[in-house]
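Weekend entry, working from home. Most of the wet-lab plans are on hold until the incubator is repaired, so I used the time to fold the two sequences that have been sitting in the queue since the last round of cloning. Logging both here for the record. First:
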Amino acid sequence: MSDKRIVLLDGAVGTSLWEKATAKGEENVAVWRYNIEDPDIVRELASDYIDAGARIILANTFGANRSAVSNTLYHVPDIVKAGVKLAKEAAAGTDVKVALSAGPLSQLLEPYGYLTEAEAREIYEEQIGSGMDEHPDLILLQTFMDVEMMRVAVSVAKQYNVPVFCAMTFEKVGKTMMGNSVSDILNTLEPLGIDAIGMNCSLGPDLALPIIREFSEKTELPLIFKPNAGKPILAADGKTQVPYTAEHFAKETEPALDFVKYVGGCCGTNPSYIRTLKPLVDARNNNLL
């Protein structure tokens, strides 16, 4: 099998779990709580993404760090281990891989905030270390806007001898909210020996495409592309809607298949978006045979 084959990822975990929870009368809670409070919907979503064609699925562990969990009745190790276990249960009997997911911390690193690098490292060691006890196949660090915080997270993740993927989140001007450019990101992260780089969240595929194309022009690393289903819109009834249908999303994402290795969706996407993207990915891969 050629290493140029595109790997289909899953879509959003958070907004998709809220869709399932809303049917039960609750929404917009911290989704990591479902690992303990409603594990069936977490396992079900992972299974839905596998059925839709995803070859790598995310554990529901993204925001389950000490900063978020400390003021609750829960403990980080319990939440994170449960998230990885549920994803692995869904993937059992398949060749689908499970990624431990970790994101940025709510505090800013010094000098922009009061969080020291040592404190950030300790938080990531607890979150990532707990997840790795359950033996996921890889680690995806995603939705970071500060490359220095990503650098700290990578230094922790690289201790575990599994692939480490990194996805930053960008503004439409082509830089992160902290002002990091594609070149800044590559100059900082490539020397650390990461296994893939790219972007997720914030932008729909149309606005995200020039940024991921810039990555392709400046690095030989495999590229990750997980855009949103467009910018979320607050409808008159108070519910959040997305402007991209699954078909529109797939059409706008297709040009990225010329140069990305890993493709999926972020906020607003659900298994129907991945199912619609799958034939486009399959067509590209079949042309390589």
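Second, folded right after the first finished:
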Amino acid sequence: MKDTKIQWHPGFVAAMEMEFKEDRKNLEFESEHNLMEYKSPSDSLDIDTFYKVTGYACLYKSYGKTTDGNPYWK
């Protein structure tokens, strides 16, 4: 079976824009560049969450065999 890449980013961003339409003027949507962590209604968004997501981004960026070698980051 051949691997098929599904372009789900545009649909996901469109769904996010619809979900956050009331706050659209205060938000910026990017279809390929941001890492995000799902937060349930009972979770909070605080400085610890910011550092956690930043840490995920840094670890993801470092996964590669050479400097700047992660093909998914580009």
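Plan for Monday: verify the second prediction. The mean pLDDT is 77.
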